[in-house]
Every structure is written in structure tokens, then in C-alpha cells.
Amino acid sequence: MKMASDWICAPRLYEVTKNYFPSYQTFEHPLKLVTVVDSKGTRAPSLGSNASSRSSSMSVLADPLLQTTLDAALDPLSQFAKQEQDIIDPLTQMASEYESFKKVKSKIRDKESLDVGEDTLNWSSRRLTILNKFTTSEKLSISTSFLTTSTSSQLGPDTIKVQTVVSDKVKFRLEQLDDFEDGSVRHMMDLNQQEYIQRIEQLNHELVQSWHNDQRVKALKIAIQCSKILADTSVLSFYPSQFVLITDILDIFGKLVYDRLKQKSTSGPESMRQANADSARDTCQNWFFKIASIRELLPRLYVEMAILKCYEFLNESYDDALLRLTKALRGIGDPLVAVYARCYLVRTGVLLHTPNKTYIYQNFKDFLYIYQTIFSGAIRSELNRQRVDMSYYLALYGPALNFILEALVHKNNLYNEEILKDVQMIKNNGTILMAILHAFQPEFIAAHAFEFVNILSASTEGISKSQLFKALGVSMSTCSPLCESKQAFLLEVFKTINTFTDPNEYIISVESWAQYIATNMPISEVNRFLGEIHTRISISKTVCEKHHQQLRNILDKVLQYQKNIELLLVQEHFLVYLDLFQKESLKVEACKHILDIYKRNGSDSTNDPIVINALMYIGKILNDYVNALTVEDERRQISNLICSFIRKVHFGIDFEKQLSFYVEARGTFSNLDSVYNTLVHSVNKLAMETCQIVQYKHSRKTLSFVKACVAFCFITIPSITSIQQQMDLYLLSGQVALVNNCLGQADACFEEALNLIPELQNTIDIDGKSRTMDSYLISFLNNMLATLVLVPDSPDQGVLYLLRLLLDVIQKYSFAQESGRANIYLNALDMLYVQSLESFPYHIPGVISNDDLYGHDPKFLGEVNNLCAFVVEEILRCLSQLGSIQQYKLQATLSMELLVRIVRYADLSKEQIYLLALNLGLLALKHESVMEPKYIVRVLKSLEDYYKILQNIYPSQASYLQQIILRLQSK
Predict the structure, then answer these.
(1) pTM for the model
(2) Which of 114, 506, 714, 882 could staple 887 via S-S, CB 3.0–4.6 A?
(3) CA distances, 374 to each of 101, 345, 406, 911 (Å)
């Protein structure tokens, strides 16, 4: 196919009308899932409420987010989840032998959580904390007779038969006791912590298995030997974790005994209930007799405490048993072993829900009575032997003592005053004071704030004062004293804190007071607080690096609880505080947090120069941190924070000051493309706001300002790395310049955007997949062509210079598919036809476009026709290339697209134009089989509609169109 050079654009002699889509009111989303109930009562999910509402059957609308509405057949994610549920986890198969043990253990924890609820007495929430905190690298040992390969350990369910004769059962149990004599106990030495825990877990499993195999004596023996382990303090630092591991086993043993008795008392018919209850009582009494016969004190007490709840079957008071056990615990000599034994008694007692807390208070009083033995010579000698510091040793008492006190004061302030009075009479009371500060309600501590300060200040050996004042600060942060006492109280506190000469103790103690000061004190006090920290800590770089986490916590608390972030930023010592973060990475994290708080909690806009300078300083730290090695995610995070700050800076109608700020920001944040992107958008917005204020009628001053804005953008855009972003911003800036009647600046922006096209990469990686840039470039040039319609020709460049440049650069770009180039040419043909009209369909106020500039001059129309001929020739070349590579579907589709444009834009009376249109239609019909169904039918229908419009107003053109339609329909 050849194209004649005598292309002539046909005039538009008809009015363009807009056909709107028909609309109707609806009450549900058309894709909302509904349940249709037919006449048979069956339900079927369907999509489209309008369709269902028109049916005769009743529709029941369901919530699309409800689980019952989601059908696995419709939801692929639900289907996958269902398949995963059917697959057995191989780890579960490997651990099947521990299944019964885990069930019992989980039942105990669930029961414990159910009993005590979400309050502070939930022991299960403390377990992991203790196990993670109290660890050791020393070698451990364990003594037991149940982790050997002896015959007794191999007894299984096949060995133990249900004995029908009482004498046989007694005989068998006597044989078991013979097997479990103390002489069979073996000692496992030199175990590391992990191996030790594994052995304890094996004992746990062995106990459960023995119980289920009807080996009650063996289960009891395991519980006894486990209790003996709690007398071992050879590794003091591990004792709290050892206590947790062993008492887990005792909890399971107690649960097994209780459930067995409960089942025995409630089983059988109603007529046998009383007999069963009597039998359960006898069995329970037998258990307590067995336990009472244990020779050693510690296992006897622990095992009885484990089954303490079984007193329910003896119809005896819990209180008597609790007080008796409390007195019996006085026989334990080691104070550390004793306090944890008392903790276990309180633990089991809390689960009984007895309202009487006398036994708890008595346990605490007994601990106070023996407290001074902690500082005895024997204990100090043992500490020296194990190389354990006294302060660390005292910290070992914390978990047990904390739980005892919390149980005592839980929902009850009856003993608070008396405890506080008793503690004041004790020397070296730091450990007890620490437990009190953790256990007592903050309201009580706040009511006795000054008294607590005096007591803590007078404390001597034991827990350091820095730890005590830290605990006091934590408590006071949630509940502060009365308003008139807050300032005086803070002064009293810092009288002691300021006496700490060791920077380590100082920073530890002040850390917890940041929240109290930020919440209750004026901003001047916060500023003074930060200044004092800087003065005390900045003298040593080592201290700053060592306590960077405490310094960061202080900063976070101040930022979180200070309501006015702008007021904080203008304080003298706030930015100075950042210098305490010696490592660059730590300072950057702190700066990111500050900007994030400002983004979320700061005011919507600010024009305070001090606030702006502070944020600029913080942002510059982040900008300077970014380099070529910075990961993309962190670069994006920093950019978002700085961009958010830039958007909040607003000087009202002082546009020149606003532009000066953007100029300063451009020089400050030179490493971040996203910030430059934001600055260009902000300056363009500033120019448009100016245009709106003057209503498109610029004065000399406003026109100069807008030109300065465009110049800012023109200078800034080349600094951005991404060619795609540069093209978008050049186009946007050119459009802003055009709207403001800055024609020279607009031409420069459009020209730069077009010159970047050859540099645009052909592909881009998105989520690890390579995607072509054809679709982006087509979209970009469509926007450009729509803009160029309004751009008047420069007298220095010639007719349609920018369009000629566009057509030239796309020939240099390598498209992934030739159809991309053809689509751009088709859109360029649309733009050229608009240029041939006497009046353009849209205009910009104040801008004289080519329709007014040339006044439909024949020479201008000749240039337009020549360009149309050139564009059509290029499209035909693209069609030929598509045919050579057998892309027949694309070739046929583009042929129909060009046919429609020729029919609408060109004069069909020219023979070559007419033949070209006809041949394009025949080419499309030739490959109709590979095209979208009914596509050609729809095109022909649109040509028929166009013929009906032309036959009355342009009969000569209509006759040629009719011949083309008839020829194509006949094929």
C-alpha cells in the first residue's frame, strides 16, 4: 500500500455530541455476595444484587466478610487453608510420644489462666521472663533414678496389667518400691543448661507416662526426686529458672492426682455418688499419708503443696493447711530455697480462691525475720566461692518476693501501711523495697511519695539506689502525686539522683523519670532535664555508647508524652541532646523517630523559623547519612519523613518566603531524589496558587515570581536520577508554565522532556519481573500531544516544532513491539487533525493557540497536511513490519484504527486516499479469524453511524464512505 502526498484534512461540518452511559439508582454494590434461596430451600451464592433482585426468588443479603458467607469453592485462599489443615505436620508426628504430656501441661496453664484471669497473679506470664533472665554457662548436675536404662524404666502398658486381686496389687507396688530404692539413684554431672533442661523435660514426660500406665508409686517417686533438686544451690544464678522447671513438674503431678480423685468422686450412677465420694476421700487421705511419710522436709512440703487442692475431698479448711505449711517452711535453712518454697505455697494457695490472706502475710513476716541471714558470713563465703556479687544474689530473690507481695496486696490494701512500717526497721532493705515498688499499687505509692523518697534515700547495702529510684520512676509514671506536690516531689527525687557520681548509675535512674517529667512538668523542666543529662553524660564517649539504649528510651518517652512537639523542638537543649548519640547509625535512628513523631503528632502546618531550622538540622543528618550503599527501603523511609516535613511548612500568602524555603531545602537535601520530586511539585503548586489569586491576569511582579518558580523546577529536575521522573516533572512544569502564559519556559520544559526519550530504558524491574516501558511512553506522549494542541508555535522554531521533535525522537527509541510506535503515530494523527480545525475544542485563558495565531491560514494547513501524510506513511511502514513478523492480529487491529481515522479526518474524494482506506479494510478482513470476535462488526457499525451523520451535511464525502462500507460488507 502506498500513500499519496495529497492528503487534505476534511473540514468538520457537524457538532460533536456526547453520549452518556445510562444510569440507574442502586442500593447494593453489584459485586456484593448474596445468598439466593430458591423455592426448594437450597442456597446458592451469586454475584450481582441487581440481577438477584429482579428474580422471583427471595434473596437474603449476607455480610461478605462473614466466614459463613465465604465458600471455599469461591475463595481460593480458604481452599488452600483447608488443604493445609488436612496435612499432618511432620514435627507433630515426631513429637507424638509427648502428646499426652503436652495436653496435661496445657490444661494446667489454661486452668491457671482461667483462675486468675488477666491480673498480675498469672504465673504463666512470668515463666518465660524468669527462664530468659536467669541463665548460666556453668556445668549443672542432676540426681535421679528415672533417666537410666534399667528394667524399671522400660515398664510399659503391657507390663502393668489391671490387677483384680487386692493382694496382687499390693505385692506389685511393693516390688516397685524395691526397684526405686535410693541406692539406684544415678548422678549426671557436667550438663550444660540446654542438656539440663532436656533432662527435666524427660522427667516431666516420664511422670505423665508412668501415671497413665498405672504406675502411681513411680510418679510419686519422680515428684519426690524432682523436689529434692530444689535443695541444690550449687549454681545460684540458675536457681530461679530451676525452680520454674521443677515446679512445672509438680504442677502436673498435682493436676493428675486432683483429676483422678475428681473423676473417682463423680463417676457412676447417682445412687453410688456418696459411696464414690467416700472412696475418693479415703484415697485422698491415703495420698496425704504417703506424703507425710517422706523423710526429707523439702520434698515432703513441695509434694504436699502440689496436691494442696485435694483438701477439697477431705472437707477440711484450706486455711488450716496453709498456715500449717507456712510454719513448716520455717525449717528450711537456706534463705533462697525458703523464699521460693514460700512462693510456691502462695502460688498454689492463690488458686484455691480463699479470701483469707493471713498465710501470705505470715510468709512475708517469716521472710523478714530471717532476712538478715542473707548477709551472714556463711552466705558471703558461698558467694565468694561461686564468684557471685551480692547485688546479683539479692536480685535472685526478686521473682519469688515480688509474687508473694503482689498476691498479698492484690485487690487489698489492708497490709500496705504495716508492711511499709516494718520494712523501714530493717537494715539493707533494698531487695524488699524493690519488691514493694513492683507489687504495690501506683496510687498507694503516689499517696506516700515523699515517704518513699526518704526510705529509698536511706537504703544502704543491697540493691543500688539507682535501681530503686528507677523502679520508683516507673511506678510514678502511671500515677503521679497531687498537682501542688509534683514539683516539690521531683526536686526531692533529684536531690538523691544528682548525688550519683557514677554516670552509669545516673543514666539508669533518670531513664524511668522521662515519662513522669514529660507528662507532668512544664516544657522548661523538660528542657532542663535534657540539659542535665547532656552535661552529666557527654563527659565520656564510652558512657554514651554503652547507654545509648537508655538515652534513646528517654528521647522516645519525651517525644511520646510531650503534647506539643513544636514547643519541644525550639528548646535550647533538645538538639544538643542528639549529640549524645555518638554512633552515626544511632543518631540517624533518633532523628528518624523525631520526624516520625512530628509527622504523626505535629500540627498540620508551621511557619515558625526556629521549628523549621530544627527540623532542617535533623533532616540534614538523615540526608548526609544516605550514600550509594544505603538500601532502597531505608532511603525511601528517610525520604518520606523529610517530604512530610516539607509539605507542612506553610507561610500563608508570603509566597516569596515559601519559595526561599524550597530553595534552601534543595541545597540541604541533595542526596534524595524523592525530596527533589516533592520540591518540584510544591513549587508548581505555589505557581498555580499564584495564578488562582490573580485569576490568570498576571502583573509584572507576579509574572516574574511564576517565572522564578518555573526556573526553580527547570534547574532542579536534572538532579533527579530517574529519567522517567524527569520526563514527568518536565511535562508537568511545562503545563504549569503554559497555564501561567510563560511560553518560553513552557517550550524549554517540553523540549527537555522530549529529548530525554532516547535515554529512557526499554525495560524496568517490578517485583522481580521485567516489564517494558512501551505502555508508559505511550501514556506520556498522549499527555504531551494533548498539551501541544494548545502550545503556540515559537516564531524562532517554525510550524509545529515540538510535534516535529516528538516524531523525530520516537523514531530513535527502540520499542519492544512495533505496535507501540504505531499507536503513538495514530495519536499524533488525532492531534494534527485538531490543528486543522478553525477553532480548537479547548483553550487556556490568556494563551493564544495556533487556531487564533494562524487564523486557518492555507500555508499552515498545508504544513499540517504534509505532516499527516508523513505520519500515515510511518504507520503503513509499521504495518508492513508487523506483517513480516506474522503479527497479523496487531496488524489487522491497527489497520482498522487507521481506517477509522482516514474516514473521519481525510478527504475521501482523493483517489489514493479512498483506495488506501479500502485496502486497509480488506487487510483487516483478511485476518478476521485471529482478531477479537465481532471487532470488525463493531467498527463497521460505527462507520455506518458516521455515514448517517455525513449524508445530509457532506454528501460527497458520505458517498465515498458508503462505497467503502458496501465493499467491506460484501466480503
Answers:
(1) 0.75
(2) 882
(3) 38, 21, 22, 115
